[in-house]
């Protein structure tokens, strides 16, 4: 029997009325080592809370050992140290999440994440050290912070070592730009090869001197990934004014390298959950991103691992509210998300019944979901009035994801009070 995409939606949609319904996805995940949990925006409460519930189930039922998020490594280390008991500070989850001070702060400094961090802390408190769940940032915007972390650690652990001198030389290249990526990016048009070589040499040296560093409270992993951030962030900022596809690819390739470093740290039985936007975790080969020369985390991991080792779950909504900003770097607002554009994936699912649903794509039904259709993506910068011209990525939903969770009407997440007021528009 053949189905149109509309008929397939009606035939294969499963009800999502309670957390118990998520067990269908947990069962379908099977023995996967990497589970990618997406989001259609960085500011929707339900995307965070449902990912948290899925993550709890994966940790408790399938022995997952780490969470990797689309955030900076140094900031996420504050969370990791807190939930693993490495820090003697009496701070609570709200205080710890203030480490995510770089715009857009609301992505991780929000009430939904704070609740999940509290759960991770309580869960870890009952476990022996080797079984505690980790929390890591795999993004690469923290070039200066990562360099400072490297120098601080090397100064304390091996002040006479060659790696410290390499780190100081590398940092001296970036110091004049005072932590301003845009200034560095502009300068690279006239930049020498020296800094490029120095950050590469630093990473190579740290990797080759692995045995010199005592892995106390994951200090070796911290050193390695901060060095990786330094090398790849330099490359990213150098490319960002030249080629959008190239800079995008550098960033997603970095995130895969960081995921691999974390998995190597946990050993051959490592199982990791990744929280990122749909545009990162859904296979780029099933979108028009491929035509623009872009790849992503989902594609790279599917290419690197066996098919059954990687499982991607996409998210979407028909309408609601979201936290975002009208321009890069300006204060965030609670913005109305209009009903999905006609003939889009979200519109099609909504019209099959205005309720929450989930889909599990498998060998029996996946081919029914491979027709091309627009699929909404909302970033940290969002202008609803431009939706008719953009925000929809042509996709083959069944090839892009292994499962999909649809929340018909969503609400904005709740940012922590960091001295910034949410504006309603």
TrEMBL record:
<dbReference type="Pfam" id="PF05139">
    <property type="entry name" value="Erythro_esteras"/>
</dbReference>
<dbReference type="InterPro" id="IPR014622">
    <property type="entry name" value="UCP036794_erythomycin"/>
</dbReference>
<protein>
    <submittedName>
        <fullName>Erythromycin esterase-like protein</fullName>
    </submittedName>
</protein>
<dbReference type="InterPro" id="IPR052036">
    <property type="entry name" value="Hydrolase/PRTase-associated"/>
</dbReference>
<dbReference type="InterPro" id="IPR007815">
    <property type="entry name" value="Emycin_Estase"/>
</dbReference>
